[in-house]
Amino acid sequence: MVLQAEDGNPDLPPGRSGGFDKSNYVTVYYGAGVGGFYGHIRQGSLRVKVGDPVTTGQPLAAAGNSGASGMPHLHFTMVDQSSFSVRGRFTYLVQRAGRWTPVVGEDLREGTVVRSWSPPPAGVQPEKMQR
Fold first, then answer.
1. DSSP per-residue string spanning 3-63
2. What is the CATH architecture of 1-82?
């Protein structure tokens, strides 16, 4: 469920950063003490409102350059309100030897360059991905 949402702050030109209090964002509660925060979203791009339920894969907003950001990007934070870490593993693409390699169900290691995907990239068969 969407707990907070703001998209009224202007996006800044790349290379220019604003104040922390001028970021557009969405805060979502997923249940079981787990929540997510999506920051720096583009002005006017919200597709949800406070109180809306959310489902897997549902677009929430577009990435932007609002607040303390030097370039358009998405700041994502996951919080487990019942302890200091989020239980679970992630599916993502990891950069290895200059190539993007699909990974399923691995912990994220510090300093690893990753990007998300959904659905899998063309030609990738989930049953043949690393586990």
1. EEEE--SPPPPTT----GGG--EEEEEEETTEEEEEESBPTT-----TT----TT-----B
2. Distorted Sandwich (2.70)
